[in-house]
Design goal:
The chain has about 70 residues and is mainly alpha-helical. It is built from two helices and no strands. The chain is elongated.
Length: about 70
Amino acid sequence: MLKAAIVLLLLTTVVSLFSGLFFLVKDEGRGSRVVNALTVRVTLTALTVALIAWGLHTGQLASHVTW
């Protein structure tokens, strides 16, 4: 369940990235929609990092790297 939430947040972050690009091209930097898209993207990224940290802390996510 945690992995699905992380993947969903990552996909939503990518959608927010492209919506910000669309607003930047369409509004030519004059509107506030680019700033709103950036705020959403930063919030989603912070939530993703928090979920990854939570998963590592609880043991639901583990690194199996041998080095």
